[in-house]
Fold these 3 entries.
Entry 1:
Amino acid sequence: MKIKSLQLIVIILIAGLIGYYVGTNNVKVSWKNFKPSASVINKEAPASLSNADFSIFWNVWGKLETNYYDKTKLDPQKMLNGAIEGLTASLGDPYTMYLPPVQNTNFKDGLAGQFSGIGAELGTKEKQIIVIAPLASSPAERAGLKAGDFILKVDGESTLDWTLPFTVSKIRGPKGTSVTLSILHKDSSKPLDVKIIRDTITVKSVTGWIKQIKEIESISNKSLKDHENDKVAYIKLSQFGDSTNNDWTAIVNDISLKMQTDKAIKGLIIDLRNNPGGYLADAVYISSEFLKQGTPVALEENSQGQRHTLPVKRKGLMYDAQIVVLINKGSASASEIVSGALRDNKVNGKSRAILVGETTFGKGTIQQADDLGNGAGLHTTIAKWLTPNGIWVNGAGLKPDMEVKLDEKDLSRDSQLEKAVLELLE
């Protein structure tokens, strides 16, 4: 009886050693050659990687699992997400990014027009996080954040080399909670800590009105006294998101009808200030309101340097209206496409619109968004866009025809809007 028990124990030990040997050798072969096996779930390596040696990657992974002192930190999904984020970050393009589920949801919520946070569109510059534009009446705007501000820290953590999605995930949070940002204003040498209470941010992408000159509170009536009974139309675009086209159509139909019947309306002001952009198709749609079918809105240039035109494909309502476009350093991407299209295209030798304000942000690339499953997403820069005249605004921005800066000492007066009104009255 004892001999049989001993034999059984020996057999079990031998079987265990053989299983361990075979298992570890199979894993090592799989790691070295990165050939999908039972341990690699739901993913075949691309054909282009057939000869790639992933041994260092898997060697590091294995050593972390074996040697790292705090095993609770070894979350395989987080480690995989970090590896993919590093893969996209290696390109040095802030707009090509991997979005884990939470960050991908945050991005989509922003385009849908409602989320919980501080209400500021962010970008990157010189490997630092920068405020492209605070949203109107948002906690960020009330706290004094301005376009061009650098965000150096979030709750005491340095943002150097942070990705945009990661930064957004750190700044957003439940309504009523707070986040402290270390802000460096453009004309300051000393950072300022700003505590901001998060709130529900609802972004209505399009608003508009028609007013008599004397009813516009934010402009000085002194220089417009002889025109106080004249009227101007005004449309503000906050972003190019999920509801933009429908919101635009509803407002522009009403304003267009009134402009046809009321001769006191001298023209239309399109306000793209602090508009961070959004969908390329929306930029073409909005531009099509003012440019005839077939007119180029922008040029798209692929990785081989081949260009094709993005033209107007629908009939608009305002081919003859006088237009002034307001821009500033918070105007980016789709905002710049619309501005460039209306500036470059001419009717009777004159630009379709006059640009008033400040030089725009300068984002001249196009991204493709792909859902990867399980809530994750990938944004990939697939092309450049250029204005109809072939100008690439990336990094440089669009310069206005008439540069006008706001008076920081008198924020109740909108000198840019005032200049736009004057241009319509001339």
Note: The mean pLDDT is 86.
Entry 2:
Amino acid sequence: MLRIRRTMKSTWLPLVLPTCILLGTAARAVEPTVTVEYKTFPGLAEMDGNWAALLAASDGKVYVGLACHGCDGHLVYFDSKADRMVDVGDLNKLTGQSGLAIGPQSKIHAKFGEGRDGRIYFATHAGLWFDYSRYATPEGYPGSHYMAYDPRTGTMQDFGIGPRFEGMNTGAYDPKYNRIYGLTHPRGHFVYYDVASGAKVDEGRVNNWDSICRTLGIDEDGNVYGSFGQGHIYKYSPATDAITELTEQLPIRQKGISLGRDYGKSESAWRVVLWDHETKMFYGLDESETALFSFNPTAPPNQAIKRLGQMAMPGLADKRYVPYATLSLTLGHDRKLYYAAAEKEFDYGGSGEAGKASHLMTYDLHTGKLQDLGEMHLPDGRPVLGTNAATTGPDGTIYFVGAIGVKNISGEQGQSAGMIGDTPYRLALFIYHPKAGN
């Protein structure tokens, strides 16, 4: 295994030109660099994205949902104990769709969940909608499947299609009630599958196009939370089977003129939230300016939401053009929130251009200190172009999934998923071991 090392990286002149400095040219201040280990996905170089679908399970396996727009997505896992990558399978084959000439199961776009039975629960998603011209037609997308993978037997159980003709772009699993929850695409309905009873329930529409949230939060009592409208929050109670609107509002920035981002993207919802069993609170990031906030569901009205800071890269904070927040937030065993902040708007092949390396940001829940650990680089010096998923392993290891540039070296030459600007890229799993004192 490669070791993590922190180095200092010059952002201007290489050390091979000392004469320039002697002549009076002042170099910029050096920036810290975080070197991360990485693993690519052998035989799956065409996979072109990953959003939220990343889970480090209790057995040390790290599950990843690989997307492929217009073709078949894959479920894979990295066995951290054996140091090997395993392709569980093609989602089209796993759902019995191979050769049917219908819209493919191209993604796992929502979070995985680990059940008390040890199985990994998730739902599938579409990846190419033909501009909706084939929406709800025989040759179109048949609908998202609810599924479970058993790592003990290596078998997959398909619970069948949930929402007809719609994908599942947001979701979460609750082990208390043993349910897979989700938001459908494109209508934004709140749905769930009850594993014990086999019931498939549609609670109706909770989101519009301009406010769809990409993460559902679940507390330890099994209550499910999402955001909608202008930073508002709703709660689904499994005890009453009812959805209610809360009085709290997120610290969002009002949406203005789009500068470089897809104007269809929401800027009025939370991008990612996670539940902390110790503080009994959610921590999350808004979409518009990467504002970090806490959300205490049991606090008195108008006291539940607190703005804790901004986790955008230094120099971009408070700017109108701060990049759209990523989904790459996780809580480490050291009580720090870890976030991979992009330098440019990052959406894999949908990105306008490849920015500089992502920065690894932390927020200490004990001290309230926000820290930039520096640019994320591979051991060979390549930058991490961007990420959109994060998780923490049982041993405290931090994992991200994102994109790297493809080098012209043996084993990688020509193997890319596409282009980010003019840079060919492929997906990789990034591995970071926190150090004491960072």
Note: The CA atoms of residues 236 and 243 lie 4 Å apart.
Entry 3:
Amino acid sequence: MSQDLYDTLGVSRDADGDAIKKAYRRLARQLHPDVNPDPSSEERFKSVSHAYEVLSDPEKRRMYDLGGDPFNGGMGAGAGAGFSFTDIMDAFFGGSGAAGGGQAGRGPRPRTRRGQDALIRLEVDLADAAFGTTRELKVDTAVLCSTCHGEGAAPGTRPVTCETCGGRGETVNVQRSFLGEIRTMRPCAACRGFGTIIPEPCRECSGDGRVRSRRTLTVKIPAGVDSGTRVQLAGQGEVGPGGGPAGDLYVEMQVRDHPVFTRHGADLLCSVTVPMTAAALGTTIELPTLEADVAEPGSDVERTVALEIPRGTQSGTETVLGARGIPSLRGTGRGDLVVRIVVETPTRLDDRQEQLLQELAALRDEESPDGQVSAPHKSVFDRLRDAFNPR
């Protein structure tokens, strides 16, 4: 190939690397035998590839410009070029592989790698989720091998350099084709890409540097968590291969149902059933608080709160007790306690009770009521239900 290499690519002698690469890609797309069946295109493609290999390498280009042999006498300009297959792929797909020379190796894989994160689920009562608590967990994860301390080798021995790859972790496969030499890098089969071999693996961990073990951890559950909330314990997950740093442990909360209170966000909902007479005359009842579930004996925690039911309270009436709900997970504020009053109508009356009610109906002129027809009133419970179950 006696033609000037710059002319072969159609670039000026002061063209920069980007201009050379663009010119090569354009010509390779036109001349590649898989695209252009013209027999002459194969020779031109070889010339273009050879020119690109020289001009894209700064050292080879400098030698060529000085009139020397860019291949140091090893392979003349007319011989098959040892260019990287990556460059050909760049021409068609616009990749950014190494220009010129063989494909860059990745080197040996490290034996020491970070461990995986772990996830466990923990059931807690509503009161513990609301006010926070501390729990002990038993977890089964990979821990550092105490025999080899993560080295993977039996005590008194050490990993040795792989003779097959010379410690590179890769082997080179060279194939010749009409394109020239195509070099491909593969992980070394002898050392599995590590570059070293453990001649005597640790018997305790079989060379992995870690073993499985059950251990006890203490997890602090912050106030305000809900089902699905995850608490992160940094560095308490799986120890990595080769004794690598441990991943994180995530504890996902599952809050149990409460016999009295239902949670909606930061609010608590409950219902209180009162007799018809109490609703008509008014009364005050002691409503249990959620704090009572976690109160220590003898503590001054308020176990009940007074709930006033005014005279004439209707069934379905809602009373809001401010700041009696769930504390915010962010640490500021607290939700409300929404109490729904349910008026209970007696279903069994003795003769005297029935007589008194009849007398009351007569006094109130309610012996034959017509009733009042209106659209149904939606309580906060109904609105919450509709929000979660849209039609």
Note: The domain at 262-388 is CATH 2.60.260.20 (HSP40/DNAj peptide-binding domain).
